[in-house]
Every structure is written in structure tokens, then in C-alpha cells.
Write a structure and sequence with these properties.
about 190 residues; alpha/beta; about 40% helix; single chain; globular
Length: about 190
């Protein structure tokens, strides 16, 4: 069975996105997958990347979880058309040379374009919540999708990266929210 690492990036425990992350993890665990779970704001680390920064114990443990995961699930709200500061800091500190990639790429032809990527054989799913309509984020160029899918995950070797989006969250009634929770639980049960 697949090893899955679920990452909740909403700082608020009472948020829909955090509830979605718990629903995914619980359903995947019930289906027999090996599941690890992280709520980023519970990790103890300095959000600022300094040239002399050494990884704190929590981040070293996260790197092990990511390295051993066959599938990564990132559950995040969309704030100001991007992800929260805690997830940006998490990526800044964890997705680093030596762990996620190395320069230069061993292939001479690829050296100018991409590094040697270390997180291959790992897939991912981004589940995001947002108050704005889906069309609004598409009109702005879908920076969450492009930035996270390509500039972070693909760059490190994680592929394929699929996305599930829930829009107009603030106006959603309990019936709609339950439908979204059921959909995420289905994804967890299938390990997708």
C-alpha cells in the first residue's frame, strides 16, 4: 500500500481546509494506506531562511516524511491568490539543495534548465479552498497552481501533481461543505 504524507497549511484548526486535510488522512488510513500528518503551524522552526540556517529537528523529521512518501497531499487555503506564509516558509526551509534537488544536472544538455531532481517517484495532490470564484483565479493566471505545481513540486521531481479546488467557501452551506468533505474522503480512500 502507498505511503501518504498529508500537510495542512491553514493556521486555523477550525477552518474548512484543515477539516478537509483530516478527512483525507482519516479516509486514507481507513483504506489501509500508511499515512503521516502535519499541521505546519505546530512545527517549531524559523520562517526566515538565512544563509547559515540549519534545519531544526521538526524540519529534519518533515524531510524524512517527504522523502519516504509516495504521495503528498497539500491542503491549503488560497489567500491573496497564493498560499499562506506558513506553507511558503515550509517550502523555503525544506525544499533545498541536497535534499530535493542538486545543481548541476548530470546531463550536459539539461544543466542550463533544471537541476537533478531527488523527489522522483512521488506524486502529489493540492487541495485548495478559496472564497473567490474559480474563474477569477484563472483570469489572474492561476499563480497557486503554477507556482506550487511547477516551481516547487515539479522542480523537485514530484509528478504528477493533481489539483482539487473548492471555490466560494464562505458562502457554502453545510450541505455543500459536507459534499466537499465526502469528495476529499473518496480521494483519500483511493490514495489519489
Amino acid at each position: 500500500m502507498k505511503t501518504i504524507h498529508v500537510i495542512s497549511a491553514n493556521p486555523h484548526l477550525d477552518s474548512l481546509s484543515h477539516e478537509l486535510s483530516l478527512a483525507y488522512a482519516s479516509s486514507a488510513k481507513d483504506a489501509g494506506y500508511t499515512v503521516s500528518f502535519t499541521h505546519i503551524v505546530t512545527l517549531k522552526f524559523d520562517y526566515n531562511l538565512q544563509p547559515s540556517s540549519k534545519l531544526e529537528p521538526d524540519l529534519l523529521a518533515e524531510q524524512k516524511l517527504i522523502k519516504h512518501a509516495e504521495h503528498i497531499v497539500l491542503v491549503t487555503p488560497l489567500w491573496w491568490n497564493t498560499y499562506p506564509a506558513c506553507l511558503k516558509a515550509y517550502f523555503d526551509r525544506i525544499i533545498v539543495p541536497g535534499f530535493a534537488f542538486n545543481y548541476p544536472h548530470p546531463n550536459r544538455l539539461l544543466r542550463p534548465f533544471i537541476p537533478k531532481r531527488h523527489l522522483k517517484d512521488t506524486s502529489a495532490r493540492i487541495i485548495n479552498t478559496q472564497d473567490s470564484p474559480a474563474l477569477f483565479t484563472l483570469a489572474l493566471g492561476a499563480p497557486l497552481s503554477i507556482g506550487m505545481r511547477f516551481a516547487v513540486l515539479w522542480f523537485s521531481g514530484v509528478w504528477p501533481v493533481r489539483r482539487t479546488r473548492f471555490s466560494r467557501v464562505r458562502k457554502a452551506d453545510n450541505t455543500k461543505r459536507q459534499k466537499w468533505l465526502n469528495k476529499v474522503a473518496e480521494l483519500g480512500a483511493k490514495g489519489k
